[in-house]
Amino acid sequence: MGFILRSVFWLTLASIIVPAEARFGYDANDASGKEVPISEQMHDTAYAAWGFAVQVGKTCDSNPALCEAGQNLISTVTNTGSSLLEEAQAYFVEPQDAHVADASTHAQQHKKFQDRIE
């Protein structure tokens, strides 16, 4: 796990440090850089997503325990997220009868105080 985190850190740092012209294929002699049509970019993106889905499918066929663990992780994350949302809503939404409950509690406490004094 540490190797993956270190790799992500160094690759991110390298992508920040390397100039955008070098990353995107700009030529120093050409001011406009490499023009790539949006349709080609969308095709490449869809092709990469399809390739990723195929690899995930192959991984689930060859290692069903890993696929089951991934499904458990996704369900745990979604269940935790939904419970956090419910708790946040309950925390920020004020109860409808809060003032009535406070007034009735206050009256009972006042009566107990009066009984002690008398």
Uncertain parts? none
Number of helices: 5
Annotation, overall tally of beta strands: 0
As for the number of domains, it is 1
Spatial separation of the terminal alpha carbons: 71 Å
Helix content: over 70%
Characterize the structure shown.
The chain is mainly α. It has one domain. The chain contains 5 helices and no strands. The protein has helices spanning 2-17, 20-23, 38-62, 64-92, 98-117. Helix 3 (38-62) crosses helix 4 (64-92). It is elongated. 0% of the residues are buried. The mean pLDDT is 76.
Explain the layout of strands and helices:
Blueprint: H1 2-17, H2 20-23, H3 38-62, H4 64-92, H5 98-117
In short:
The protein has 118 residues and is mostly helical. Helices cover 80% and strands 0% of the residues.
